Amino acid sequence: MDAQAAEPYSAADFRRRLESRDALAEGGEYGDHRFNPELRHLIVREGLRDAAVLVPVVDRKDGATVILTKRTEKLRSHSGQIAFPGGGIDPSDASPEDAALRETEEEIGLDRSFIEVIGRLPDYVSGSGFRVAPVLGVVRPGFILTLNADEVDDAFEVPLAFIMNEANHGRESREWQGRTRHFYAMPYGDRYIWGLTAGIIRVLYERLYA
What we know:
Blueprint: H1 11-19, E1 30-31, H2 40-43, E2 49-58, E3 65-71, E4 82-83, E5 86-88, H3 96-108, E6 115-120, E7 124-125, E8 130-139, E9 152-159, H4 160-163, E10 170-176, E11 179-188, E12 191-194, H5 195-209
């Protein structure tokens, strides 16, 4: 298929949009403080922990999907939340990309041989104290997932067309450290995508689809 004729929200279209942007990982400061400028000093601070997540775009014939997970309730960080596969960057990881691929395989058993890394978004700073590198990958169908029950309760796919539709990007708020904190929320069926994951989705939308 010609790149210019790629179907909207297909993996080919996703790749074309990414290739048309220069230095995608650079430019701009992203994080929870964008929606809460008065809380910037509490969010962008010393001691942030480096992490990486994979944004796994599956090349489905009927339209690309994105793999998300539901984290177990027993985890100390972001327990029970909908998340991209990923985690902390270890000293042994060669790069954020390597960390994202390793964590993805450890969490959901998605072998890196099915994943083509095609880019990275700017780092995203979360209110929970992480500096997250969102790694973008296209996933070849045919994989089998094996969930790590210590980390993940479930893994599922959401249409790229859904999460890249601004109409599905709601704004909500909660109390956080005695203050009102605003964030994006994207309910999908009985799944509640919000916080860090929704923030990264919003950045992806702004950089590639807005």
